[in-house]
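Q: I'm writing up a methods section and want to include an example of the input and output format. Could you take the sequence below and give the corresponding predicted structure tokens, formatted cleanly so I can copy it straight into the document?
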Amino acid sequence: MKLLYLVPALALAQLAVSRPQDKPNNKAYEKYCNENKSQGTISTNSTQIAYFCDSKAPVGKNSVNASSPTSCYVACKGNGTDCDTAVWDRNTGLCWIGRVSGERTPAEGYMVLSPDDHGGKNDTTDSNAHEGKNRTDGDDAQRSTCQGEQQRYKPVDPICDKNDRQVTEVKDQRFYLACSRRAPNLALQPNTYDSLADCMGRCTNVTGCRFVTYEPETKLCFSGDGDWFLSKPSADGNFHSAFKVGG
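A: Here is the clean output for your methods example:
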């Protein structure tokens, strides 16, 4: 008789474990987005970040892993003038960075983050869209913006001397260059490598590798398997680093 109750109990327990609200990024999300708040500002390092809950905005295809909205915005800020908006997904921990090229749209579990409220317009306030007015001029402008973004985010050569804080590509894997920076507690890879690009190539073949640090003088290559930002990288002119974006 007890077995008849045990099976449903186990099923309920499994459902409880897999509920969306139990995902690891939930606490970071609900710190800012909850029943009482759907948008606001975050203060970090003397910078005011505007955020919008359950929203997305088109910012391109470049993505990094981020465990919180603030670390997602740090990735955007680290991209210099090329980035004005970040979009964070609490379900996957992915963070998309770039320049916004359209309107915010509803998307459960996502957050749009931007300085000075640059995170796209809210489509529910666009009277032209709701009234069916001619938007040819706006469509042309958006198309031009998208073409510009494609050119802006075309991968550069994996050379730190001239391409710091830009997206590069090695073996069909995109990396974000973080020159003159290194992370602690890395795994030394076997052999030596002639360039940072070769070191990144090694990372594409190592399971779990998320970023690399390269020492040009010794030609040694080090790898890390966690979150680049949470690893607390520091400035060091003797090393160059790069972390994976978009997978």
